[in-house]
Amino acid sequence: MEPKLEPRDEPLVSGFLQNPNPNYGLKVPVAESNAVNGTRTNGSDENNDRSEINGNLESMIDVIDVDEVMDPDALAIVLVPDEEDNQLANVEPSYRRKFPPRSAELVRVSNLEIEDERYFRELVRKTRTLYDSLWIYVTLEEDRRRSLLDGPVPRARVRADLKVASMMRDRGLWLNQDKRIVGPIPGGYEDDEDSGDVIIYTGHGGQDKNSRQVAHQKLEGGNLGMERSMHHGVEVRVVRGFKYKGGAGDKVYVYDGIYKIDEYWFEIGKSGFGVYKFKLVRMEGQPEMGSAILKFAENIKTNPLGARPVGYVSLDISRNKEKVPVFLFNDIDDNHDPLEYDYQVTTIFPSFVYHNARNGGGCNCSGGCTVDCLCAKKNGGEFAYDINGRLIKGKPLIIECGPLCSCPPNCWNRVSQKGVRNTFEVFRSMETGWGVRSLDLIQAGSFICEYTGVVLTREQAQVFTMNGEDTLVYPNRFGERWAEWGDFSQVFSDYVRPSYPSIPPLEFAIDVSKIRNLACYMSHSPCPNVFVQLVMYDHSNFGFPHLMLFAMENIPPLRELSLDYGAAGEWTEKLAICN
DNA sequence: GGATGTTCATAATA
DNA sequence: CTATTATGAACATC
Question: Which one, out of A13, A176, A505, A508, has a CA that is 20 to 30 A from the CA of A252?
Fold first, then answer.
């Protein structure tokens, strides 16, 4: 099914100053203010990482007079309440809030050192990964709970997003709870593209519960926030929502960069009531991102040569072996190497693997697998995937239903064996040689592809390397990144890392010198967005699982995929093995 | 299947 | 301080 993108009528806007008090103190002499350093930080006491973040931040931000906002050298904007408000703020409340109120300070972070930028990017990535895996877990738990109820009308499903947000907030896992950070998000990618977007954003208020305009909007709340942001030159971060058919959820939200508020006006609409309109103009010098990339990727998918007249070497290096085409793109040199190899959709094991150790056979769930399923028991009494085929949590091994099972082909427990679902392209780059990227948005936990080749036993591999060949991949050298997917140790105190089903040390190698698939073109990264999950389905030899690759986070189209090949030093950072 | 209604957690405001 | 209102997202239902 083809994902379809439809733009939302109005973009969502966040990151603006929202302050109903026009007399909020605006003048803060730099020398006197220590408002930032004096701010309490949430959760820093019990979590070393977080106190370290705040420690880093404080050294990088500064407090300035708000009149200097337009100064390009300005490091931070901090608005501090005037004397009267300060006195109010200092009154010790007689009740205890669950969370301290968020500070009204606006902070701009700039001139990050490369290590700091890397640190923040990794922190955000980990937080997103935790959110995404928790979301899948909570949704599944809730469905299970509801399925146990026999009531006539099942209660509405609890909102997993809200529940996960609460869980993470309770444990101090939200980022930037204490300060409001404005400006560009650290961790973007260098580029000079500018889509020149202009947005006319309609303010809020004056509507009844049927979303009909029944009164004039007022310059308050978010509307006032927009006006104040324009006045002080505080940029607005724009997030666009799209309907996304073919995905698990029904909508996706993408960050589209920072916009400046050019002007605003009050306008009488068809209803006869006035609404505020804000003209937002995308700031220059930002990379192409978000919805622009999504649209571009859609265009490539439907008409590759139209969208990119130069560079496509092949429109399917799998030669119809995959259910979806695998493009080959090179617009920087004449290298066409990936065409030279036989393409194999799944790994070929030595024949003895299929004949040995057929323990147990398959399940007998002719109608469809339930919790009592034999294969579920092999996975520790639970299914590995949710209804959308997303991996629930990484394990040493996952056993899918297979040819010996009685369940139908659409059984939930058959995912990775069905092969590639997204459109990928192998592409040439200056930095990484060959790389792999998707033209679809890949949701966290989704299956990507198998890492295929020809399996060599330890003995065969020794002979192979003696002949001077160096195109072997060793499964036991991949970093154990599966453990990070569904790692709830920060959320549940009794969380233990999955150790079942346990597997023996893997002593085979994969030869990609003649036969391979797109996986071996993936680059190495110490902070990968793809991980290896071992899976078995077509035999029962625990020493020879399939190497299946899953998404560690939501991966936007055209973002390079990366794997942790482990074995530090053997490959330089971001070097694909198949170069 | 698209429109409409309900529910949720939270923040702002009365 | 509590109570009410407003908000947008996700889900259920029409």
Answer: A176
**φ and ψ at residue A182, rounded to 5 degrees:** -105, 170
Residue A451 is encoded by which pair of tokens?
């890492």
Distance CA A91, CA A274 (A): 40
The number of helices, as runs of H, and strands, as runs of E, in chain A is: 10, 23
The one-letter amino acid code at A458 reads: R
A9 touches strand C (CB under 7 A): no
Regions in chain A scoring below 70 on pLDDT: 1-102, 104, 148-157, 186-196, 210, 244-250, 356-360, 467-470, 567-579
Residue with nearest Cα to nucleotide B3 C1': A210
Whose CA is closest to A484, among A517, A547, A528, A422?
A528
For residue A491, the SS3 value is coil
Written as six digits, the tokens of A239 are 């997030």
Which A residues between 227 and 246 have a beta carbon under 7 A from any strand C atom?
241
For A159-250, where are the E strands, in sequence order? 180-182, 198-202, 236-244
Nucleotides of C under 7 A from a protein CB: 1-2, 6-13
| Core vs surface per residue A79-106: b (16+ CB within 10 A) or e | bbbeeeeeeeeeeeeeeeeeeeeebbbb
Helix (H) or strand (E) holding A266: strand A251-268
**A558/A87 Cα distance (integer angstroms):** 52
pTM score over 0.70: yes
- Asked whether residue A567, judged by its CB, lies under 7 Å from any atom of the DNA or RNA strand C, the reply is no
- Alpha-carbon dihedral sign for residues A139, A142, A143, A144: positive
Q: How far apart are CA A257 and CA A240, in angstroms?
A: 10
The alpha carbon of residue A442 and the mean position of all alpha carbons in its chain are separated, in whole angstroms, by: 9
Q: Is A381 helix (H, G, I), strand (E, B) or coil?
A: coil
Bases of strand B lying below 7 A from some protein CB: 4-13
A223-235: pLDDT as tens digits: 888 888 888 888 8
Instruction: Give backbone dihedrals phi and psi of A185, rounded to 5 degrees, phi first.
Output: -85, 125
pLDDT of residue A113: 82
| Residue A560, strand partner residues | A437
Residue A147: which residues within 8 A CB-CB, separation 6 or more?
none
Give me the count of residues in chain A. Answer: 579
